[in-house]
Design brief:
This protein has 372 residues and is α+β, with helices and mostly antiparallel strands. Helices cover 19% and strands 27% of the residues. It contains 9 helices and 23 strands. Strands 13-14-15-18-19-23 form a 6-stranded mixed beta sheet, sandwiched between helices. Helix 5 runs parallel beside helix 6 and helix 6 runs parallel beside helix 7.
């Protein structure tokens, strides 16, 4: 579908209407001052899809040329939606990368962070957000970071000193496919990148070539979104002739976003795993699954960072763009996702004890739901 791009001068009305990332190109007709945009900060509009995008082109910022840090992931998702509830903890390591400084220091998933460099993780029940900067040291800082951690698996507390260092480059977005219980396809993908639906369907077909599948688990936890239309292609594998969501203008005119009826139906039951890292196009995908009754959602509420489709506008430095929403997104049932998220059918959060023991309660629940 071809959509007329709004003029830069008229963007304000679109922002007021709300503002999923479906942007595909940079608006060719108008440029704006890069210096002005950096000064006025579009993000101050408090819209999760409005902002400044630095050098690297419409696809996003360039990959960090110096991956650096401790090598840990946290159960505190960044960036946080403005409407996200207060984080009450505990703060723990959800992942520890192999071969990273954190792994070399003996840290493991599930380790609960009690303090960083002597600063307690919480004061009067409030997260001391400044400790997050200690946990994300910039290149080439090598100042050791001292963590006091408690390991649920043993109950022991200890201090660990970790010296930041070089990390492996982040892999490009891709699809991982494995079998659960011998016959359920678990398909994990970390972004709705261009072509992801084709890659997902091929992964399922490859598993089906050697295994009689009894179900599919889509694991989109931590998926930060991307191209919303890819989700519509994928949902077309489970239903045809259906509207996933709509993009609406300030005057109330809405463009229905439909599933791709050219996608062959899989005729398999499906469960989707979600968390608060599932944002933008991932929010839309989760809501499509829920509204169209295509399967159960298991995990925790999605990010709710989905105000509407964005357009990109080139700045006069010829290397950066500003991003503004042009319509607001609503679900198939007319509900708003932005600032709210999509609640799961089965609440199954990852706890520190689960991570420490190597358990995944959401995956276990999904497998149980699809048990023949």
């Amino acid at each position: 579908m071809t959509r007329k791009r709004p003029a830069l001068a008229a963007i304000g009305a679109a922002v007021l209407a709300g503002g999923i990332l479906v942007a595909s190109g940079v608006h060719p007709g108008t440029t704006a001052s890069a210096a002005l945009v950096k000064t006025t900060r579009p993000a101050a509009l408090h819209d999760d899809h409005a902002g400044y995008q630095g050098p690297g082109g419409p696809g996003g910022p360039m990959q960090d040329p110096h991956p650096w840090g401790l090598g840990v992931g946290l159960n505190y998702t960044l960036p946080r939606a403005e409407t996200a509830p207060d984080f009450t903890g505990p703060l723990f390591l959800s992942t520890v990368g192999a071969g990273t400084p954190a792994a070399a220091a003996g840290l493991k998933p599930g380790d609960v962070i009690e303090s960083v460099n002597g600063v307690p993780a919480f004061t009067n029940g409030k997260l001391n957000s400044g400790i997050l900067d200690y946990l994300r040291p910039p290149y080439p800082q090598r100042t050791p970071v001292t963590l006091t951690v408690q390991r649920p698996a043993t109950g022991k507390t200890r201090k660990v000193s970790v010296t930041p260092g070089e990390l492996a480059a982040q892999p490009k977005p891709h699809v991982d496919a494995t079998l659960v219980n011998g016959s359920v396809a678990r398909i994990r993908f970390d972004a709705f990148y261009p072509g992801v639906a084709k890659d997902v369907l091929k992964a399922i077909a490859d598993l089906r070539a050697t295994t009689e599948l009894t179900g599919v688990i889509f694991d989109v936890r931590g998926n930060r979104g991307g191209v919303a239309a890819e989700g519509n292609v994928l949902l077309g594998a489970f239903v045809h002739d259906a509207t996933v969501m709509s993009f609406c203008n300030a005057n109330g005119t809405c463009d229905p976003q439909r599933v791709d009826d050219s996608t062959p139906l899989l005729h398999l039951p499906m469960v989707t795993l979600t968390d608060d890292g599932c944002a933008s196009a991932c929010d839309a995908f989760a809501m499509g699954v829920k509204d169209l009754h295509l399967g159960k959602l298991v995990g925790t509420r999605t990010a709710g960072a989905n105000s509407g489709p964005t357009q990109l506008y080139a700045l006069n430095d010829n290397t950066s763009v500003i991003r503004f929403p042009s319509q607001r997104a609503i679900g198939a049932n007319g509900e708003i996702m932005d600032g709210i998220g999509v609640p799961p059918d089965f609440h199954a959060p990852l706890t520190a004890a689960d991570a420490s023991a190597g358990k995944d309660p959401a995956l276990a629940k999904a497998a149980a739901l699809l048990k023949p």
